[in-house]
Amino acid sequence: MVVDIDMFEKYTKKSPWILHYNAGSCNGCDIEILATLSPKYDLERFGVINTGNPKQSDIFLVTGPVTYRSRERIVELYNQIPNPKVVVAVGSCASTGGVFRGMYNVEDGIDRYIPVDVYIPGCASSPELIMDGVVKALEILEQKRYDEKN
Amino acid sequence: MEYILILLLPIIGGLVYGVERVVRARMQNRIGPPILQPFYDMFKLLGKEPIMVNSYHIVFALMHLITLWVVVALIVLGYSLLYIIFLHLLSSLFLVLAGYSVNSVYSHIGSNRELQTIVAYEPILIFVAIGFYMIYGTFDIAIIREQSSAIGELLLLFFAFLLIVPIKLKKSPFDASEAHQEIVGGVELEFSGVFFEILYMARWIEYVFIYLLLFLFAGDNILFATVLFVTIFLLINLIDNATARVKINHLVRIVLIGGLSLSIINIVWLWI
């Protein structure tokens, strides 16, 4: 199988801009995401910028089990990100509800509301895991852009 | 020769911006992105789905980019400095209008702050032009480039000019108009995909504009111009890494009181 990536498609992988949203998390995974952008783990060498703007980002990093107030906001933010986009659920709370599964105040994970591409386990996920997940999400992003073109 | 340089302006600006991101990262003990990263960003943005709010928004951003490109082209060709400063004011006003043309609060706040920074830095630019006129007797850049450097007599004006460089390059402590964490980018909020590329490219050309004005202080001495460029480049990035953002009213106050008083003292001293 010959995959023909055109001239511009290969640059999708080289400059992923992330949007980081906290859907009711305890902030543990948020701190680990910010640590990934710090000098020791340095996500910026992949060209990653943490934009706060959904209209300019490719990767939607979500933490936290979805609480009542953040349900609509998650879907709104997801809709405002232009295609192609990937969603990465960071932490066990965002993937399955974590320790709060079945509680009265959370929905169990974000995949009830938006389609998720990469699940990163951990409570809290370590920065190496997050980087691994983001790099895997980049490959999915490149594949999506290639699929969209054809 | 100069026409080729004018056509390649975004590429030069992109390289300067790329090197700056690496320098900033190295100062923070990180590795930083590759130097060609702004061009990777540009190609990626070209592939995003274009979401447009309304067409005036995009047209104003395009006019901002085109007038900024014309301004730097005129500097390269050596036209009158005063005319260039006023044309640059026009390009900033296009950006402000772009921010006001959408129905978004953060965009309006960004435009409001951009207007206040224009009030802060525009008088100082005009005083710099007047300073050049009093030394060289002309506003023409083509003639000023051929003379020897007069930075000794223009020293206070040079410091006033350094005060406004962080404003134009959107760096701390004077980056309130594009306050990333506060107003989510200000004017650039509602731009996405290829339309954001317009503003991104305009930022690169702004870098070239400021550094070309910096070269004017060095006259025809190319070695001095290079030394000045490298020193001010590192100094601006050092200050960016070391300071926090000031509030917009403090920005206007600091730049107007500090910059204007330095400029007026220098002009009066030149007159006497």
In short:
Chain A is built from four helices and seven strands. Chain A is an alpha/beta fold and 150 residues long.
Comma- or semicolon-separated keywords:
heterodimer; A: 150 residues; alpha/beta; 5-stranded parallel β-sheet; two-stranded antiparallel sheet; 4 helices; globular; disordered N terminus; B: 272 residues; mainly alpha; 72% helix
Describe how the helices and strands are arranged.
The complex is a heterodimer of chains A (150) and B (272).
Chain A: E1 17-22, H1 28-36, E2 49-50, E3 59-63, E4 66-67, H2 70-80, E5 86-90, H3 92-96, E6 106-107, E7 118-120, H4 127-149
Parallel strand pairs in A: 1-2, 1-3, 3-5, 5-7
Antiparallel strand pairs in A: 4-6
Helix pairs in contact in A: 1-4
Chain B: H1 2-7, H2 9-27, H3 37-46, H4 55-77, H5 81-100, H6 105-136, H7 141-144, H8 155-168, H9 194-216, H10 222-242, H11 248-271
Helix pairs in contact in B: 2-9, 2-10, 3-9, 4-5, 4-9, 5-6, 6-8, 6-11, 8-11, 9-10
Description:
The complex is a heterodimer of chains A (150) and B (272). Chain A is an alpha/beta fold. Chain A has helices spanning 28-36, 70-80, 92-96, 127-149, and strands at 17-22, 49-50, 59-63, 66-67, 86-90, 106-107, 118-120. The longest helix of chain B is centred in the middle third of the chain and has 32 residues, at 105-136. Chain B is mostly helical and 272 residues long. Chain B starts with a helix and ends with a helix. Helix content of chain B is 72%, strand content 0%.
